[in-house]
Design goal:
Order of helices and strands: EHEHEEEEHEEEEEEEEHH
Number of helices: 5
Number of strands: 14
Radius of gyration: 16 Å
Helix content: 10-25%
CATH architecture: 4-Layer Sandwich
Number of domains: 1
Shape: globular
CATH superfamily: Metallo-dependent phosphatases
CATH class: Alpha Beta
Distance between the termini: 39 Å
Strand content: 25-35%
Strand order of the largest sheet: 4-3-2-1-10-11-12-13-14
Length: 223
């Protein structure tokens, strides 16, 4: 099953539709079987836009002041033996996983934990839980309106491929986000990368800031 991940769209704003940023968001979501929106939709028209590609479920964000049957405070689903939970706010995301599960999901155990809120992409596998924050496709790292990030989950029995896609960049505006991916077989990291640099399982297990240091060092060695 192929699942599209999007969060923190905050529309309408300076633009009224994700299409106004270009075709990249639509191209990333085309062909998915389901879309999970991590909240801060701000308008149900965004969900209608998403549904041209696939059904959508939403975790209600702090700026989502509307009612919609597709939206709940938390969302849970089971896909090919993987339990997925989604809530808008997971921060601080650096906390122990059990603390995040307690505050965000009421202690419910999941295999894959999806969130948003920070506008900063994050991909980790800690304590048997894959944590994914796909960032924002429109306000990456809380910068001005520009192309940012979306995510993709490809799930089959015993295997998950999670990917953060860095879109764009928009003309004249850099995208501060970093593309990354990980492939899990059961609870083993089989493959991972950051900004196109292959990571070992030990490097991927590092906190995101230390992981970036490892990638920077690897780039220096290559030069």
């Amino acid at each position: 099953m192929r699942i599209g991940l999007i969060t923190d769209t905050h529309l309408p704003s300076l633009v009224r539709s994700l299409d106004e940023l270009g075709p990249e968001v639509a191209e990333a979501l085309r062909g998915v079987d389901l879309i999970l929106h991590g909240g801060d939709v701000t308008s149900p028209t965004v969900l209608d836009w998403c549904e041209q590609f696939a059904p959508v479920l939403v975790a209600e964000g702090n700026n989502d002041l509307f009612d919609d049957p597709r939206m709940k405070p938390t969302q849970f689903l089971d896909v090919h033996g993987w339990r997925i939970g989604m809530a808008h706010e997971l921060r601080p995301e650096s906390r122990p996983i059990q603390q995040i599960l307690h505050s965000a999901l009421g202690g419910e155990h999941v295999d894959i934990l999806i969130g948003g809120d920070t506008h900063v992409e994050r991909l980790e596998f800690r304590d048997g839980v894959l944590l994914v924050n796909s960032g924002s496709p429109i306000l990456p790292h809380h910068l001005s309106t520009r192309l940012g990030t979306v995510g993709i989950l490809e799930i089959s029995q015993g295997r998950v491929h999670a990917e953060i896609i860095a879109l764009g960049p928009s003309e004249g505006l850099r995208n501060p986000a970093r593309a990354q991916h990980v492939i899990l077989h059961e609870d083993i990291v089989m493959e991972a990368s950051l900004s196109g640099v292959v990571l070992t399982a030990a490097e991927f297990a590092l906190a995101p800031d230390l992981r970036l240091v490892a990638v920077t060092r690897a780039a220096i060695v290559r030069e």
